[in-house]
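Review form for a predicted model. The reviewer records the input and the model, then writes brief findings.
Reviewer: anonymous (R2)
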Amino acid sequence: MTRQNTRFHASPTVRILIGLVAGALGGLLLVWLDPAMASASADVAQPLGRLWLNALQMTVVPLVFALVVVGVSAANDAAASGRTARRAMIVFALLLSAGAIFVAIVAPLLLSLLPRDPALIEKLRATMPALAANNAAAPGLGDWIATIIPSNALAAAAQSAMLPLVVFALFFGFALTRIDAARRARMIEFFQAIADTMIQIVRWVLWAAPLGVFALVLGVCARTGSGVISALGWYIALQCSMYLTVTILLYPAVVLFGGERLRTFAAGILPAQVVAASTQSSLASLPAMIESARTRLGHPAGVVALVLPMAVSLFRITSPMQYLGAATFVAWIYGIDVSVAHLAVATALAVVLSLGAVGLPGQVSFMAATMPVTSAMGLPIEPLGLLLAVDTIPDVFATVGNVSADLVASSLVARGTRHEGASD
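Model under review:
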């Protein structure tokens, strides 16, 4: 009996993919059999899908605020533990920013080269009527700058204005590091409890993800036909190519700035990359990373023991790329031109949110961070449910990129430590 129960137990990822396939097949079948019935079915399915998205969205404001506050405290504690830790935090920030800027520039350029079906865009606009409200009357540059710091943090939270809310959370988190240690510890524990509670709610909502994704996909396919399926294929290709490109770019970076030999470094990190691809977990790859850094690359034991656990806890180079890639894809599929200012804000926001979302399960972090980034760009969040269902496919490339970046960070910190020792 136990063996049978295990056999038929499906992981959350498999269940979501089943909902995606079932919704797509159901919507396309309805279109083929009876377009009028397909339209009526979409009218029923779309509110159910929107209800599921609302359940996810209701946790975003408290979860993001709590994660940023806790993340600032964790980064401050790590940086205060010594010069090597401070150097590692600088390296993490630089690599995260470089990866995010790369995607913010390249992703829109790549998407602009893809064929865009005007009929599909119009059908999607009709399917998601909230789009018009999100993009009405963009504020001028002066008005937009004035809103970065909120005059009323509670109002910003009530309006889901993510950028002002994150700015206030950053001020709040840094201010906490300057108060009495005992009081700070109680406040951090309070916000950690809020984050844990919100994550539990998200897990409950994600339990219903197959139904929510089924309703969303059925409604979209019933109205737009097979065009949305090909669009999702372009999304998968975009994310995989981004992760792979950044991983490749890490090699010349570590040669130039880390002083590594290309062939030695490539051979040294290969075992850790194999473990990352097979487990799709940076934490599970940590022992292999430590072995590669110490015995194959010759990094100092003190650097390896500090930097790599910090990297697994605080640093995931593909996270901002994931959030920005999803947001720019939403802009592409709707035919929306995102301003440079909005793209710059989304890039900075993605880097900040990635620090707080590192320890979250993949599906939780996707919705908790991608929703704010997408909203900051003035885009509709409705397609994110569809993207969540297929985002697990590029996860192999993402994990390999994260593990590779962790070892690059170890090389950069190790080189600085060696130079420091030589000068002493």
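Findings: The chain has one domain: 12-423.
Further findings: The CA atoms of residues 52 and 424 lie 60 Å apart.
Recommendation: see findings above.
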